[in-house]
Amino acid sequence: MGDRMATPVEIGLRYLSLGYRLRRVVDDGMTAGGLSLARTKVLQVLDRRGAMRQSSLAEELGHAPRSVTQSVEALEREGLVHRTADPEDGRSKLVSLTTEGAKALAAGTAAGERVLREVFGMLEREQLMDLGKLLDAIDAGLGV
């Protein structure tokens, strides 16, 4: 960028690009550990909230119900989640984490944390603190 000051748009685009690359690196590391970032998020919600309807799971994840159904079906085939009829609404399915799912979640989380330690571990403590403050400011600026 040279000596000239970058514009907010240039910095914003650079941040988005870097965020995308970081997500890809984390996902690759997690997938190599056995569970992608997206699949880990599904299991994290189930671990945190317990058994829940697929529609509620989709809402929690901010995904379309159809894409969550496909993910849940794949996770069920692998024995990581279990689906049962909702006793309050027979048309709905309750999704819950299995013991194998909890083990896979732990492994996937550990793999993601390893990648993040590698990437952010090269920063000095002061740099990490500064980055944390900048992220707080950006987060507050979003107002969402």
How would you summarize the topology of this molecule?
Elements: H1 8-32, H2 37-49, E1 52-53, H3 54-61, H4 65-77, E2 81-86, E3 89-97, H5 99-120, H6 125-142
Keywords:
single chain; 144 residues; mainly alpha; Arc Repressor Mutant, subunit A; three-stranded antiparallel β-sheet; 6 helices; 3 strands
Report on this structure.
The chain is mostly helical and 144 residues long. The protein has 6 helices and 3 strands; from the N terminus they run H-H-E-H-H-E-E-H-H. It has a 3-stranded antiparallel beta sheet with strand order 1-3-2. Helix 2 crosses helix 5. It is elongated. It starts with 7 loop residues before the first helix and ends with a helix. The model has no long low-confidence stretch (mean pLDDT 93).
CATH superfamily: Winged helix-like DNA-binding domain superfamily/Winged helix DNA-binding domain
Number of strands: 3
Query: How much strand?
Result: 5-15%
**What structural category arises from helix and sheet content?**
mainly alpha
Strand order of the largest sheet: 1-3-2
